[in-house]
Fold this protein.
Amino acid sequence: MQRRHFHRLMTASAAAASFLSPVLGHTQSRTLLRAGDQKGGLQALLEAAGELKNLPYDIKWTEFPAAAPLAEALNADAVDFGPIGDAPLLFTLAAGSRVKAFAVNRSDAYGTAILVAPNSPLKDAKDLKGRSIATNRGSIGHFVSLKALESVGLKADDAQIRFIPPADAKLALTQGSVDAWATWEPYTALAETGGHARVLVNGRGLWSGLSFLAATDSALRDKRAILQDFKQRVVRAQVWSYQRPAEFGATLARIIGIPADAARLQFERRATRWQDIDSQVIADQQRTADFYLAAGLVRQRLDVRNTFDTSFNARA
């Protein structure tokens, strides 16, 4: 017990010292920031904008295919932080994880959508009754599926929701193993521009468009200054990207290895803007949590205020 306590103290002290060392002129050690990411996410944005140059700390990137496995990595303290949608963040709270959102962005919800094959007979959400929908458990795709069914008076069990990761879900849709695929960008843009699918139901009016940077409590405690610096770099990079859409679209395509038309479509369609965690954000997140309770996906009402660290707000 004493050894573990000593190890925690030494780790925290080393982290603080290594972050301060560039300021003090020492170069013998640098803090390592363990960053989780998703395809076409933070690393691509920061690299394109040149915000990964001259970092006073090191970053170890780990890419996840979806938010659910990223959330599991946060819960296991395998990464310090990562980008995560509103729905997956709620599941981490329900699981009792020590994770908090410290930054938020809101984007156009269109690209979080339910896709079907180009020649599918399905025309709208009502046609999903009795059909199979592939998506990730606890993802924003899962959430939009449930909201789409609710919007036309259907219940969750009126469709067959099958939990399949994005790459396998795309294959299942193209091979006809499932009738629909609920996913998000850049997968939506890739499927559309590649002619593999069309949008049956888009997320506008169904999903809040909120996504977060969420960090473990230990990272928020021990690497606060680094996380603040990282957040500022992301905000600057986002502004840069919309000032140079053609340049960023081409760079994004090269970095994440997708066609330029898909990269530019998903980027421009998102219209992502970073903002403070305000009362509207918290209210929207509470509505999502209450919806999950009503749908039986969480067992008790969640107070989402416990999910946020607002000290990183620009006006904090």
In short: The chain has twelve helices and eleven strands.
